[in-house]
Every structure is written in C-alpha cells, then in structure tokens.
Amino acid sequence: MGVVLSVRDVSVYYKSYTRTVLALDRVSLDVEEGKVVGVVGESGCGKSTFGSAIMRILPHSAEVKGNIFFRGKDLLSEDPEGMRRIRGAHISMIFQDPMTSLNPVMKVKDHFIETIHTHKGKIAEEESMSMIKEVMDAVGISLSRLNDYPFQFSGGMRQRMMIALSLVLHPELVIADEPTTSLDVIIQAQILNLLRDLQKKFGMTLVLITHDLGVVAEMAHYIAVFYAGHVVEFAPVKELYKDPLHPYTKLLMKAIPNIDIDDRQISFIPGYPPDLSSPPPGCRFHDRCPYATDKCRKETPPEFRVNGRKVKCWLYEGERVNE
Amino acid sequence: MSEDIILQVENLVKYFPVKGGLLSSILGREKRFVHAVDDVSFDIQRRKSLGLVGESGSGKTTTGRLVLRLLDPTSGRIVFNGKDITHMQDKELIPLRKKMQVIFQDPMASLNPYMKIGDAVKDALDIHNIGSPRERRDMVMDMLKKMGLTPPERIYNSYPKDISGGQRQRVVIARALVLNPEFIVADEAVAMLDVSIRSQLIELMIELAEEFGLTYLFITHDLAVTKYICDRIAVMYLGKIVEIGPLRDIFTSPLHPYTRSLMSVIPVPDPFREKEEFIPKGEIPNPISPPSGCRFHPRCPYAKEVCKTTEPPLRDAGKGHQVACHFAGEV
C-alpha cells in the first residue's frame, strides 16, 4: 500500500506578544492509503493542530515548519489557490461541532452545490444531484430535506450531513477532528458505525482525531498517541492495546472507565500536561512518569523502533534499530 | 423507618411552556409544553449516592435543578431531610442551601472571571455569615489545600483564567464544600475534563464523600463513570425514569432495552472484543409531544402493539430494582 500522507518533522508555533507555544514539535507520521489512523491524546497535546496543519487552516498566529507530503506534493509549499483546489476535493475535514461548520443562513443543498461548483465548475443540475444523492443515501438522510436549513436538523443529523458534505467529491483523505465528541452516546455509536461503513465503502483514508481511546479501538488500523506536541507512540491498533509500550499510553489506557463492575479501582495519571510555552527539559512526560530516570529529566528521547512499532521513551533504548 | 432518607422525590413534574408567537396567541392556539420531567419518583438514602443517567433531553438536569429548588415544580413533592421543601419560600430556603449544593459542568461559567479564586470560595461563607473574616480566610485556605490546590496562598490570589480546567473544577467543589453540605447535585461535573483529569476528580469526590459524609446526585450521560461513585442508578428517558436499581444489577442485568443500549454503546478500549451493539434507531423524540404508550417504543426493536398504546408503569423486579417495560426480562 502506498503512503498517502507523509508528515515530516512538522513543528507548529503559536506566537503572541508575550509568549510562544510550541504546539507540535518535529512530528513525523506516515498514513497508508485506505487505512484509518487514530490520533489520540488529551486536550492541548497538539492533535487538533496536527489536523489543521494538514488542511492548512491554522490561524495566522501559527508558524509551521517541516513538510507535509500529500501524494508526494508538499502541502506546506502550495500557494493559497493550490490549497483551495486540494481542500474539499482531495482532502476534507469533519469538525466536532457541525453547527459552527455549516452556514446557518444557507440551505443544506446550497452547501453541497457550493462545494461541487467550487471544484467542478458549473456542472449540470442532474449531475450534481446524482453526486448529492449518492452521499445523502450513504449517510441515511432523505433528499427531501435538502431544502432545509442546518438549524432544522438535530445534532446527530447535522453531523451526518457534515459527513455527506465532506464526502461528496470523493476525497482520498478525510480528517475527522473529534467528530462525535459533542454528541450523545447513542448517537456517537451511530455516527462511528456510519464512518466505519463509509470508510470501507468509499475506500478513503481516514485520520480520526479523538481524546477517547475507546472510540478509536473499534475502527482504527493504527494509533498515534500524542503527548505535549510529540508523537510518543505509533503502532498497529491491536498491538497497541494488547501491549502499550510508552508509560503514558499505559496509564492513559488504565484511566478509561470500562464497564466491568468488578473493576472499580480508579486509576489516573498524576499531575497535569506541561505548559508548552516553556516545555520541560528531557522527556515531556518525565514529571508524571513512574519510570522516570535522571536521563529522562535531561535528554529528550528519540524515536525508538521496537518490532516495527515506534516509541519515544528511553526505556526502549537498548532495542533501538537504526534506520 | 430504619432507612435514613436524605431526599425523597414523589411524582415530580415539570412542564415548560413553549413560547408561541403573536399569531398563535391571536388565534388562541392551544398552549404547548415541553414535558421535561414527567412523574418522577425516587428516594436517596444518606451516603448512598444516586447516579442519574440519560441522553440530552432526558430531563436529568431539570430533575437536579428541581430537587435543589432552583426551579419550581409543576407538581409533585420534594422532601429533604424529612422536611417538605416543595413550596418553601426563598427566605426559608437559605439555611437549607448550606446543606444542599451544586456542581455544574463548566467551571469557567460557574466562576466569576473578575473574582479571585479565594474570594469566590469565601463568598459562600460571607453570604451565610459563617465565622469572622479571619476565620473565613483560614477556612478557604484549608479547603483549597484539601482540594489539592497548592500552594493555597497563590491559588487564593489567582483568577479563574490563571488555572487549568481540572483545577477550576476543584475550586467549584471547594466552594460547594466550604459550607459543609450534606447533599450535592453534581451535574455532568466531570464531563468536560480529559480522561485522566476526570479520574483524578472522581477520586477526589469519592474521598470527600467519605470525609464529609456527602450524598451525591450524580448526573451524567456516561454510564461507565457511575460505577466508581454511585450506589444506585436511575436511567431517565424523555422525562421518565425507565429503570432504577442497585449499581451492580444495572450493570450486570439491565432490564430495560434502553439501559441495555446505553451499556452497549460505551466505547471499550479493546479492539479484540467482539462487540454486541444494540443501537436504537433514530434520536430522542421531541419532548413537546412525547410518543404515546411507552416513550421508547418508536426506537425499541422489541416494541409490540401494547407498547404503542399503554404506558408501562415502574414495576418491581426484586431487590429494589424497578423497571418500566412491558416485556422486561423477556427480551
């Protein structure tokens, strides 16, 4: 399988008058065609910045370094017009809150028409309608609702629409940033099942950004665990859940409440993630890590390879294989 | 009675009128109501926290506000510590408010951004005129320390924007606890926090419950977290309690199809698990005109004719477990 997206040493700085926040620090990640990659981490770990950096929709205060290759082309060197042609048609995005992503005074149909016309020019009505019908059918919304406005839909329906809209041009890559976070648990399950079916049906590559390790366990092929602007672990989903390597991944996994009533021992990671305007020296997780040594406090660990998996932790130093 | 009941709720009802436009009032159209809470009854024993679980629009938040008398019920009865508080006037309620406190979901919205953390906590003591100004300051410091907000001197003088979300929620808890309450309504108190911070806070809430002898009404959409902190669970759907029972029974043998679906959709961090999902069709209906019969019938895969016409009452399923379903135990 070819690599659709290759992120290379990407750093993102948010600058204000008083301080600079290093939201992503030399992040590298490859995404294979047709696969689902889950990007997981707590608030402020840089996972949304990662998604927005690929789409090139970061705020102006952000400075980006590195390369993001999409089908061999560096997105970071595209001009605004070139990016416009890519967004929507080749890479699209699903956001957390569909109400703020849709235009409240535009009918649903016009959202689709606008997207189609932007990329395909003024094509015939029948042709656009058949494209719209395909995706509306796929997400299970009746075509009769095309003349409604976003506020006339419930939250779950709006997210379905958002998904239909993101797929109407059959993009190769879809980035979903917390697509179910603002939804109720049952609607969340419906939307996740829908996304999983659509991913298979359309064969798109999906980057699923979420704070919930439970959500990605069920649909991702690979998981990238983000912590304080670093990818601390990258592994195939089953291996990661069976045997998490990084101490952060281990503790994070334990902190998720399961439904086993006999397992009522609550566990959590002590402390808080670091302030990224002055990140700690050494490993960024060292002050919360039960295994931290002096080395961890002083030197930032490189990425070690363990059985084809990647982990940024000194514990695995001996197992390093040079690339 | 040997049981020590802290809160008793009987046939609680809250309808919110729907504001019609000018046209509706001229035409004299029938007034419509949102049936937010519709005939809800439950007891909470002292130091036996109740988890109130349901989706958005199930009426769980309204129930929480009603029992605190932050909203006036349409009908029904609320008894707190043996006293009927349903029709108490604000003045009579003030001394009671020390005993019953609330923690909301969003600490940023619960705290005044222009008020120092310490003053926000002390405010509660000022209002109820507890202790001398000096004592109040010490009480606040003690409470901040207990919440793990250290160093308390620095936290006391900072503003909500200066601390993290998890710390802010600790401040809100400190403010609730400084009055030494007995009963706390925690309305999605941990919903906005990251998983690890959430677990920290639940741990703190459990410790505090033991230390202060607290009873929680723990309102949440997330069934999984209730297992740490609750003794009993009530599941609400569209203004009704559809199932209520001991924590373990609800987790191991849920009887209502809706409870079962809530259990089955909890995302489990285990890609090896063969998941048996039971996802109801569609979404929660409009509470202005709730479905006839059983309110869950349009989404229930087991619905039969009787479910469309007859509302199932809550019936006993043994050991304090009650369920409102015609076919509970059969499906």
Account of the protein in words:
The complex is a heterodimer of chains A (323) and B (331). Chain A is an alpha/beta fold and 323 residues long. Chain A has a single domain (3-90, 171-319), classed as Rossmann fold, CATH 3.40.50.300. Chain A has eleven helices and twelve strands. Chain A has helices spanning 47-55, 80-86, 98-101, 108-120, 125-139, 155-167, 185-202, 213-217, 237-242, 247-255, 294-298, and strands at residues 3-15, 20-32, 36-40, 62-70, 73-74, 91-94, 173-177, 205-210, 222-227, 230-236, 304-306, 309-311. In chain A, the strands form two sheets. In chain A, strands 6-7-8-3-9-10-12-11 form an eight-stranded mixed β-sheet, sandwiched between helices. In chain A, strands 2-1-4-5 form a four-stranded antiparallel β-sheet, covered by helices on one side. In chain A, helix 5 (125-139) packs across helix 6 and helix 6 (155-167) packs parallel to helix 7. The radius of gyration of chain A is 21 Å and the shape is globular. The two termini of chain B are 36 Å apart. Chain B has 331 residues and is of the alpha/beta class. In chain B, helix 5 (117-127) crosses helix 6 and helix 6 (133-146) crosses helix 8. Chain B has a single domain (5-99, 181-323), classed as P-loop containing nucleotide triphosphate hydrolases (Rossmann fold), CATH 3.40.50.300. The longest helix of chain B has 18 residues, at 195-212. Chain B has an eight-stranded mixed β-sheet, sandwiched between helices. A four-stranded antiparallel β-sheet of chain B has the order 2-1-4-5. Helices cover 34% and strands 21% of the residues of chain B. Chain B contains 13 helices and twelve strands. Chains A and B meet through helix 6, helix 7, helix 8, helix 9 and helix 10 of A and helix 9, helix 10, helix 11 and helix 12 of B.
Summarize, please.
The complex is a heterodimer of chains A (323) and B (331). Chain A has 323 residues and is an alpha/beta fold.
